[in-house]
Amino acid sequence: MKLNGLQVLYNDMKQQNIDRYRFTYTNGKGIFDIFFFIDETPFVLLFGAQKANFSFELEVQKGFNIDTMLSQDIYFALRDYLGIKSSSGNPFSSNKFFNDFDINIPNTANINNIPKPHQVIKYRNNVEESDKIYFLKWLDNTKQNNQVSDDNLKKTKDILGQQAYLRCKKKNISSCWTEDSTKQKNFTLP
């Protein structure tokens, strides 16, 4: 399925030099934090269910096409989160869900909606030290005579993006994290 609304948003993001964008989408009883990552190949849409332990990602292929065939576990979790009962006489359709999503994608990107690391990690918790969600600092491993770990590089890429990942890999730098929100720092490339 082609997401025409996503193409419009993408064009505005490119015009403003925004690689990652966050917006809210509501469908029935479900409220989602939506993240659109255009710094990944293919592009990625991350759907994070607010006030629920549920998220899923979709690859956005060339032409802004997505596969609407969800795995069985995601299909049922999404249906349940939306409050749709299987016996309601109105069965859940992933195509219908994504059609509604497409017409509710914002046309323009607001620079204030660039996601903060702790907003992303909330839904991408398959990273090292997932309890440490606030960006703290950069660590130059060369000065310590150490090597940045693959797990740290993965967390950097998943949470901070491709540019941060490439810079850290090239310069042997680790991203450091904390669970204390009062210690968090604004993220800038090392």
Please state roughly what percent of the residues sit in beta strands, choosing from under 5%, 5-15%, 15-25%, 25-35%, 35-45% or over 45%.
Answer: 15-25%
- What is the ordering of alpha helices and beta strands? HEEEEHHHEHHHE
Lateral arrangement of strands in the main beta sheet: 1-2-3-4
Structural class from helices and strands?
Answer: alpha+beta
Annotation, overall tally of beta strands = 6
Number of domains: 2
Protein architecture, described:
The structure is a single chain. The protein is of the alpha+beta class. It has two domains: 4-113, no CATH class; 117-183, no CATH class. It is 33% helix and 22% strand. The strands form two sheets. The protein has a four-stranded antiparallel sheet, with helices on one face. A two-stranded antiparallel ribbon has the order 5-6. A hairpin with a 2-residue loop joins β1 and β2 (30-37). α6 (150-160) runs antiparallel to α7 (162-171). The protein starts with a helix and ends in a 12-residue tail after the last strand. The mean pLDDT is 94.
What does the secondary structure layout of this molecule look like, with pairings?
Layout: H1 4-16, E1 20-27, E2 30-37, E3 43-49, E4 55-60, H2 72-81, H3 94-103, H4 117-121, E5 134-140, H5 141-144, H6 150-160, H7 162-171, E6 173-178
Antiparallel strand pairs: 1-2, 2-3, 3-4, 5-6
